[in-house]
Amino acid sequence: MNRVYVCSCFGITEKQVREHAEAGACTPRQIASASKAGTDCGSCVRSIQSILGRGACPRRELLGTAAAEPMPTTTVAEPAVVRAVATSAGLEAA
After folding, report:
1. Contacts by 38-45, CB closer than 8 A, 24 or more apart
2. How many CA atoms lie within 13 Å of 37's alpha carbon, on the beta-carbon side?
3. CB 12 within 8 Å of CB 5
4. Which of 2, 43, 58, 82 has the fewest CB atoms lying closer than 10 Å?
5. Cα–Cα nearest to 60, from 47, 51, 72
6. What pLDDT, on a 0 to 100 scale, did the predictor assign at position 44?
7. Is the pTM above the cut of 0.90?
């Protein structure tokens, strides 16, 4: 079997990068978290980006449709809640 190494520092193959992408790792940083590839000399990061850009990540289609949906809004905590949390954590209230 012909193995194509993407990361020679950690011996990570193109097949392994694709497997991590299929498992949900869609960025070079997520591939690094899953396999350490790209965390030593960094020369493989562009190769990883290239592999991910060729459809190795099945979630990319979902990300494209999610961009059209509005982002959920967040609320700011009420000052009384902030004081209660700070007090229970033993901190001075702001």
Report:
1. 38/7, 39/10, 40/7, 40/9, 40/10, 41/9, 44/6, 44/7, 44/8, 44/9, 44/12
2. 28
3. yes
4. 2
5. 51
6. 96
7. no
